[in-house]
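[Q] Does anyone have a clean structure-token version of this?
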Amino acid sequence: MTEDVGRRERKKQHTRDELIAAATRLFTERGFDETTTADIAEAADVSQRTFFRHFASKEAVLYGDDDVIADAFYDAIISRPARETPIAAVAAALRTLAEQYVGAPERTFLQGQLAARYPSVSAYSRAVVQRGLERKVVEAVALRMNIDPLDDSRPEVIAGAAMSALRFALRKWVASKGKSDLLDLAANALTSLS
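[A] Here you go.
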């Protein structure tokens, strides 16, 4: 039984990966608005219904691993030494987050380019992806500080600063075509507050 569950999960992940790869290729070749969900499904050799089982929209497939990245960011904040200030812990964890983006530079550039060109991608990036990251920062900082984020504003303020630092760093990195150091840009932007 466990083997069947493992096989199903691997197959599900394989399908997601194929959809992400197909979407990335098509968005690069054709553009975002010019690519349909049917085009993506066909390129991945699945039905459009299967596409929608995995992703709610074209924007969602463009940022298909955002939940994995958000979880890694949370884990990186939590695992920082307890003696670090919350801002220092988040700044250090930003390096882990930046490594995720640097590890897939073509996709990161594509996301930045499409967000700059298409309002729906920009809106999704801010409302879903960045908001998801921000929630993880709030949770992690509140846990580190042993406080309730509904009673104490510091986790939310730190999370907002972290997202601003990340946006700034990603813009600079994309503008430099990846020549600047995203890891340093992100960490330095946040630590400039302290």
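[Q] Thanks! Anything notable?
[A] The longest helix spans residues 2-30.
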